[in-house]
Amino acid sequence: MNNVAIVGRPNVGKSSLFNKLTKSKKAIVSEFEGLTRDRQVGKTVINGLAYEIIDSGGLNFLKNNALDAQILNQTNLAADEADLVLFVVDYKSGLLPDDQVISKLLRKKDKDICLVINKVDGVSDETAKLDFTKLGYQQVICTSVSHNYGIDSIVELIVHKLDGIPISNEINDNFKIAILGKPNAGKSTLINSLIGSDRLIASDLPGTTIDSIEIEFELNSDKYILVDTAGIRRKGKVTAKEEKFALLKSLESAKNANFILLIVDSSVGITSQDQALITECLKSFKPLMLLFNKWDLLNQYEKERFDSELEKFNLNFGFIDNIKISAEKKTNLSKIFKKIKDIRQHLSKEYKTSILNKLLEDALINHPPSISKGLRPKLKFMSFVSKSPLSFKIHGNHLEDLAPSYKRYLDNYFRKALSLQSIPLKMIFEASDNPYAHKAKKISTGLVTRRKIKNQLRKKLSNKN
Question: Which one of 53, 57, 254, 296 has the largest count of C-beta atoms within 10 Å of its C-beta?
Fold first, then answer.
């Protein structure tokens, strides 16, 4: 017994309460309603015991559209999983018909329910409770989440009602996989297909997912955390404050992940936006794989045209693995984790300095760096720096004069030699310190200066004669 579900209408403060209890910013908070849709799961630790907190989407029975029906289904699942339900209402709005409908739904589940009256500012608790006595709850807590009022009472209730799970001192080694892509590329559908349940709301409407949702998943005794993210649009099209925050959270999820799966809608093709996303992901130096989704929707001609586009695409991004899948029909999904497992094995390796220096020597023989400013950069030796990100350091002289094209050559050479498919390589170039650099005189090579030097030499020669 350690699950707490937070349920209520839109914009009553559920996500704010979730963030307070979990001491995080996992849930997006805004004055606009309807931003939480999928179940957001987090943990709170109280006196060495862990409790699971579930945030749910706001229930709106007036709109009655397909998306709200899915949100209701997700909220029902959250309440079913919970041992304690925090039913949140808004004091400022008063008791509304939707509150009464939600109350009836919760009572049918025979759960331990506590009514949380939020946004109680400037009035006594007794006054705030008057409007909601019709609901008939014995457990009632008045709060103002934005001012931290009443949070301690909720924490005490959780400790009193639930057992909690003792915190293990073991490090959480779950492999975190962030799933990125444009809106409506099939990210939520992919996760639902992988875990075998409708854990996330999947819709044909773009922008259905707003929060970044983490879901624990186990396959063949390997533990993973799948992170569903909001669809990323072009920056010029991102206008709403909430969408900008969702974009930042998606990119942050990519930086915090161990692996990135980038989904491309193959029925649309590889767009410039997809390529911009790939470039952004590579900046995080995380292993990356491309999934070309909705492959089943293409006819033979469209598949051949896509393959032709892919050949051109591979000229720049050929080192990134790709798989053609159908998330809805579960086609080729087993190949994803086979490749992830292979890449993880490469990531666990440590590379001996002797092997790296032999590769560096071969690379220099095959193609030495070009002369710059009258000097040829000298690459002396190479060493292994870290696994995550996979980093190598090259030491030498005049490395600041290495051309960007030569750095790309070294990157491609080492990746090919070490079979680093889908793994971005971080190359660090460190020039050796010159012990006499502080004694060197700065000599300008301008025309006037050269004439002065020549005149001084002539004077010295004339004086000797």
Answer: 57
**Ranges of each domain in the chain:** 3-166, 175-347, 353-431
42 vs 110: CA distance, rounded Å: 24
Closest CA to 19 of 66, 67, 55, 71: 55
Name the residue with tokens 């331990």. 112
SS3 category, 83: coil
Whole-number Å distance between alpha carbons of 161 and 83: 9
What pLDDT score does 367 carry? 93
Report strand pairing: 391-397 vs 426-431: parallel
Amino acid, res. 313? F
**Residue 4 parent element (H or E):** strand 3-8
* Residue type, position 319, single letter: F
Two tokens, residue 180: 């990125």
Whether 257 contacts 286, CB under 8 Å: yes
**pLDDT for position 291:** 93
CA distance 147 to 150: 9
Residue where the block lists tokens 């350091």: 393
**In sequence order, what DSSP letters do the residues of 338-388 get, joined into one string?**
HHHHHHHHHHT----HHHHHHHHHHHHHHSPPPPBTTB--EEEEEEEEETT
Structure-block tokens of residue 26: 């996992």
Q: Are 189 and 231 a contacting pair, CB within 8 Å?
A: no
**Backbone phi, then psi, for 223, in 5-degree steps?**
-100, 135
Q: Are 87 and 106 in contact (CB under 8 A)?
A: yes
Residue ranges, the chain, pLDDT below 50: 30-34, 170-171, 203-208
Chosen CATH of 3-166 out of 3.40.50.150, 1.10.10.10, 3.40.50.300, 3.40.50.10780: 3.40.50.300
Residue 26 is predicted with a pLDDT of: 60
Find the DSSP H helices in 82-134. Answer: 97-108, 125-130
* Class level of CATH domain 353-431: alpha beta
Residue pLDDT, tens place only, 117-132: 999 988 888 988 988 9
Contact 382, 393 (CB under 8 A): yes
The whole-angstrom separation of Cα 233 and Cα 330 is: 26
Query: Helix or strand or coil: residue 70?
Result: helix
SS3 3: strand
